[in-house]
């Protein structure tokens, strides 16, 4: 039974100007929920309905805590609550570990990690007071698997995964759920406008870091994933009473994550006798 205007859940979504965020705005509204749509440039959200009872458009720069606090306060003032937080804002920095400038690395973490943290910390008091809520954190298949050129982007998403694991244990007793979204390649701006790279890399990395970055760029427009379907899956997972903690999306995500888990299991199996013997006073079993 569809929710009425006064009891429809409130979705607070970051990074709504394009990609998953833009698609999710449409899906949320089509399902009858209410929406707080945020972006650095709110002119990019002019396509949303001009309906104050259902939609709040708020400027939000995840790297500016005052901006974050203002958007959360505006959501509370308009709707009185927040039911679902979607930490979607982010971008990808692709470059070699040695040659990518420090300033670019720090900005990657400021947006993808510290930005997500600041938004989450601003919204958590609302969810705790309600004793309910759901947080969807946009990770990536790169939150599980890192390849040449993806090191800094993957590191930011590995951080999101670790923070989400800890957060889940901290907030589940308070009635708040957490899910990680782990997409692979989808038709969004990620492989174009949302991809950053260092201006130059050493010749020694031409066949590794530089080639890896170029492969990622070459996916633009050719990704297998349908962003609209991804947004629909995010809506569906939020309707489950017992949602999965991880939601991989796309065939590549499923295949790469399964391969990573198998490789980790193989390493653990190989090292297990030596690893276990490192405890206690017994004889250390040599590695083989």
UniProtKB/TrEMBL annotation:
GO molecular function terms attached to this record: oxidoreductase activity
Enzyme Commission (EC) number: 1.-.-.-
Domain of life where this protein originates: Bacteria
CDD domains with a match to the protein in the record: 17beta-HSD-like_SDR_c
InterPro entries: NAD(P)-bd_dom_sf, Sc_DH/Rdtase_CS, SDR_fam, SDR_oxidoreductase
Keyword Amino-acid biosynthesis: no
Record's keyword terms, sorted: Oxidoreductase
Gene3D superfamilies found in the cross-reference section: NAD(P)-binding Rossmann-like Domain
Record carries keyword Oxidoreductase: yes
Family designation: Belongs to the short-chain dehydrogenases/reductases (SDR) family.
NCBIfam families, sorted: PRK06180.1 (NF004824)
Protein name: Putative oxidoreductase
Species assigned in the record: Alienimonas californiensis
Lineage, broadest ranks: Bacteria, Pseudomonadati, Planctomycetota, Planctomycetia, Planctomycetales
């Amino acid at each position: 039974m569809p929710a009425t205007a006064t009891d429809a859940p409130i979705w607070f979504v970051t990074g709504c100007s394009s990609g998953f965020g833009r698609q999710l705005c449409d899906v949320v509204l089509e399902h009858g929920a209410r929406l707080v749509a945020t972006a650095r440039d709110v002119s990019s959200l002019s396509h949303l309905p001009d309906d104050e009872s259902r939609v709040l458009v708020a400027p939000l720069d995840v790297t500016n805590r005052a901006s974050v606090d203002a958007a959360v306060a505006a959501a509370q003032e308009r709707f009185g609550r927040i039911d679902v937080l979607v930490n979607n804002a982010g971008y990808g920095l692709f470059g070699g570990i040695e040659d990518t400038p420090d300033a670019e690395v720090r900005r990657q973490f400021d947006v993808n990690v510290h930005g997500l943290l600041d938004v989450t910390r601003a919204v958590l008091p609302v969810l705790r007071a309600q004793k309910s809520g759901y947080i969807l954190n946009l990770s990536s298949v790169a939150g599980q698997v890192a390849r040449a050129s993806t090191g800094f982007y993957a590191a930011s998403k590995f951080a999101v995964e670790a923070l989400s694991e800890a957060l889940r244990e901290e907030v589940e007793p308070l009635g708040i759920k957490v899910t990680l979204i782990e997409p692979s390649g989808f038709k969004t701006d990620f492989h174009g406008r949302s991809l950053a790279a260092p201006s130059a890399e050493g010749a020694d990395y031409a066949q590794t870091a530089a080639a890896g970055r170029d492969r990622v760029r070459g996916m633009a427009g050719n990704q297998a994933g349908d962003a609209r379907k991804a947004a629909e899956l995010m809506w569906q997972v939020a309707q489950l009473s017992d949602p999965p903690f991880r939601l991989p999306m796309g065939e590549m995500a499923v295949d790469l994550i399964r391969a990573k888990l198998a490789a980790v299991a193989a390493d653990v199996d190989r090292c297990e006798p030596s690893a276990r013997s490192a405890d206690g006073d017994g004889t250390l079993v040599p590695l083989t």
